[in-house]
Amino acid sequence: MTKKKPNILFIFTDQQRADTMGYADDPVAITPHTDRLASQGVVFRRCCASSPVCMTARASLITGKQVHEHGVWTFANPELRHGPSHVRNIRDAGYRTAVVGKTHLWLHGKGDTRDHLEEMHDWGYVDATEIPGPVETATTGSPYSDHLQQKGLLDTHMEYLGAHLTGKHLHVAMPWELPPSNLPTEDHLDMFIARKAEEWLGRYDGADPFYLQVCFGGPHDPWDAPAEYRRRYDADAMPLSITETQTGPVSPHVEMLLKGAPQKLDHMSEAENRVMKSYYYAKVTLIDDCVGRVVAALENRGWMDDTWIVFSSDHGEMLGDHGLMAKKVFYDGAVNIPCIFRPPSGEVGWQSKALTDHLDIAATLLDVAGGAPFQESNGSSLLPLIRAGKDAAGSHRHRDAVLSELGMPPQAFSMLRTDRYKMSVHATTREPLDLYDMREDPRELHNRVNDPALREIREGLIESELARLLPQIA
User: Fold this and answer.
1) Is residue 432 part of a domain?
2) How far apart are alpha carbons 230 and 260 in whole angstroms?
3) pLDDT tens-place string over residues 68-127
4) What is the CA 17 to chain-centroid distance, rounded?
5) What is the pTM of this model?
6) Alpha carbons 391 and 345: distance in angstroms, whole number
7) Residue 131 lies in a domain
8) Contact between 211 and 10 (Cβ < 8 Å)
9) How would you classify residue 56: left for phi > 0, otherwise alpha for psi between -120 and 50, otherwise beta?
């Protein structure tokens, strides 16, 4: 009898830093459910977002293409769905494919997610329950807005977003001023997504292997976790953001964000910084509880021994580091993402320093499912490394370099990360903008792009790795 293929549960969050987890040695993070997955699988500590922007990174994940290849520098191209899709290839390998939550493969902001079901089917999803991100719920209808309407909570939700996010009132709250959500915990956006995933797992007949994506809207801002989650953190115990004075030039895209940020952090006090971070962590813990609920639903069906569980995110969150919020930069806070692969039955957990990215995640999902690999992709499966184990000679090596790309029209920027160095350039001219020695300067405080002592390193990175990964862009 042919052995049934393994199920795949892919848990994908939005704007989640890789270092705000217990398994990542964070001193205060409360993430027991994600830590459990890490203890039973392989954690890739140096996984790099293909782009520090939502739609751009997600386009790379589903297509297996670099940003300069798929062309989604800012907003998704509807025609992109007719290109490669790892979800479609997994479906064609005999899987029931499903998604619950935010895909962001089309531009949210109006209409209803159910108007895009055909688009989701084109990508390869058999079952699609798409829920927009927290901010977009104000303008995009979905099963979540229906749920709030039925419970008489929609006005409460809309008033919260209006008062503190969209500027309908005179004062837009700073991150440390934002109150908790007024919704009951069970009716929070991410709890709703978790419940819908539980329902899908509860009713699935198990006839075919499944590939279920559970895509949470958090911990993307607003950091609106209910008060019960905020109370779990002591703001005074929070580690401060990276605020030391930097040396060397400031990259033009960083300078743009520092000058144009709607929320100025240059006068933020240490107390405000700690409070702000505690609000983010509260939402991280909310997401962790949601992860626990979904995994428990899997356990209730008796499928833990038949299922790969994968956990990752689209990009990180600067969280006040270097005076910045959100993303759109190549600092590790924005581009380093969580990446966990827990095999069926689990195993002794271990952590790898191998350089990986979204393209590798997509290639690994295809490998696990026995789906047709992408014809052209820089991604390569992590499955051989995972199976070889922590004591194998190559357990901490996968790729020599990874690439992340950022569009800030009319300009575009690219970042190259090797084992030791991180360098960013203008995508079209190849002019170097940043160069950090990540071994000696892991907090990225000293931009040595003009340092004569690193001239050969800089030129070598451009002529070898960058030339290979990034062809000339017109």
Assistant:
1) no
2) 30
3) 999 888 776 667 878 899 999 999 999 999 999 999 887 777 789 999 899 999 999 999
4) 8
5) 0.94
6) 20
7) yes
8) yes
9) alpha
